[in-house]
């Protein structure tokens, strides 16, 4: 299997995840001016936004961990094999999800 292309894909994905995380976790420095002058009740939607971004952040972190694990597997030559059963993950699955580290049955 050609893992050079996979490594490039994974590094691109890693970078975009890091960028997204930075955007999600950026301190809301202007939060005070956003809520200023708004009606009571807007605080609720702000809280919901906050909750959503935490969920998004958790999803991004989980994917980032997988991407880095997959990159480590490229380096030690085990990329493309399931970390649980050791069987090939399958090219179709890797095409959709290049950072997959488990086969469909073990995911
Ligand atoms: Zn497996």
From TrEMBL:
Keyword Chloroplast applies: no
Entry-linked SUPFAM superfamilies: Glucocorticoid receptor-like (DNA-binding domain)
Signal peptide: none
InterPro entries: Znf_DskA_TraR
Pfam families hit by this protein: zf-dskA_traR
Span of domain Zinc finger DksA/TraR C4-type: 77-104
Keywords from the named record: Metal-binding, Zinc, Zinc-finger
PROSITE patterns per UniProt: ZF_DKSA_2
GO molecular function: zinc ion binding
Domain of life assignment: Bacteria
Start-end of dksA C4-type zinc fingers: 82-106
Record's protein name: RNA polymerase-binding transcription factor DksA
Source organism of the structure: Knoellia locipacati
């Amino acid at each position: 299997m050609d893992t050079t292309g996979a490594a490039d894909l994974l590094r691109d994905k890693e970078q975009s995840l890091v960028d997204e995380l930075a955007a999600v976790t950026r301190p809301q420095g202007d939060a005070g001016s956003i809520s200023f002058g708004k009606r009571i009740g807007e605080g609720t939607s702000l809280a919901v936004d906050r909750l959503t971004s935490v969920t998004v952040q958790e999803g991004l972190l989980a994917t980032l961990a997988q991407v880095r694990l997959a990159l480590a597997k490229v380096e030690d030559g085990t990329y493309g094999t399931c970390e649980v059963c050791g069987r090939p993950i399958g090219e179709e699955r890797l095409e959709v999800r290049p950072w997959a580290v488990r086969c469909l049955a073990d995911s």
